[in-house]
Amino acid sequence: MKTFLAYFIPILLAYAVGAIGAYVQGDALVEWYPGLVKSPATPPAILFPIAWSVLYLLMGISAGTMLSKGDVSVLRLWLLQLLLNFLWSVMFFALRSPFLGLICILALDVAVMAYIIYTAGRRPAAAWLFVPYMLWLIFATYLNGYIYINNHNTKVAVAKSVANPKFSMVPLPYSKDALAPIMSERTLYYHYDKHYKSYIDNTNRLVVGTPFDGMTLEEVVLKSDGILFNNAAQTLNHQIYFEGLTPVRKVIPKELEHLIIRDFGSVEEFNRAFTSASVGLFGSGWVWLAENGDGRLLVVPTKDADNPMCHNLNPLMCIDVWEHAYYLDYQNRRADFVKGYMDLIDWDKVVMRLKYQ
To answer: Residue 144's Cα: distance from chain center in Å?
Structure first.
């Protein structure tokens, strides 16, 4: 029984700290973190909870390996690294400070390395169980450092209040439950009222007192970079996305059907190309039907917040393949989400966006 508890209690404690940390991160993951400039090496969001679940398990087993042999000398060091692990969540997400987060995760690196060195001479198995954790922390330190370097004054900018916001949310042309079961009311609530609103609020705050104050949203997207571009482009992308959906299944107007057949060979070929690009886009981003300056139609995948306008293309319609667009309804089944989306396209809106015909 003592051996069982020696393993069970550290594992339970590690997961409890992880759960509290995840709760602390909640609002920031919706309102703040998506708008940051992040490293191109940042993995898909779904990978983080999976990785941490495995690492917490290994962390607990490592401590259990020591405790089951009656060796409690390392317990304080193990608890210290767990405390620093939690404090990083507080500094980075609750206080929304990449700088304080970087300081905290560097201290965590030192504590974990000290734990590995100490246990290596006593229980090598306990040390080896911590090695994946150390490797992950080195990568996480790089990601945190990249965010700190490339998002100066982000915390201050997000904290500002805006008395007269310039940009506002486009009203949905349907009720939030109208797209069910393809998109549930819960998904529309979080996607529209949380994610989309967060991008708009951040854009309004970030343009205050800058040369971008007074520009149209499209001008801001075309002329900005960094965190302002991320938020402004995501605002525009979501506007096109939400306006382009309809609960009433529509047929493709003849003039658009003619263009699709001209440029893709058939409507079926277009559907295959668009679906393939949407399912196959790695990580977060968008897939667009866009129009070039010659009036040709193209399927264009873009990463993160990128918009076809930035590549001299006219965006006609888009699907959001960031996980927040579909995860509540489909989890990792993006292909099912894409299939459902194809039935929600408002083709009349697509025709209205044509520019070069």
So the answer is: 15
Q: Is residue 331 part of a domain?
A: yes
How many whole angstroms separate alpha carbon 20 and alpha carbon 205?
Answer: 30
CATH of the domain at 32: 1.20.1260.100
* Domain housing 280: 185-352
Cα Rg of the chain (Å, integer): 24
Q: Which residues pair with 315 in a beta bridge?
A: 290
Establish if 177 belongs to a structural domain: no
21, two tokens: 């940390």
129 and 202, same domain (yes or no): no
Per-residue pLDDT of the chain (357 residues; tens, 9 = 90+): 666 677 888 989 999 999 999 888 887 887 778 778 888 888 887 788 889 999 999 999 999 888 887 878 888 999 999 999 999 999 999 888 999 999 999 999 999 999 999 999 888 999 999 999 999 999 999 999 999 998 865 544 444 555 577 899 999 999 999 999 999 999 999 999 999 999 999 999 889 888 999 899 999 999 998 889 999 999 999 999 999 999 999 999 999 999 999 999 999 999 999 999 999 998 889 999 999 999 999 999 999 999 999 999 999 999 999 989 999 999 889 999 999 999 999 999 999 999 877
Rounded to 5 degrees, φ, ψ at 297 are: -95, 140
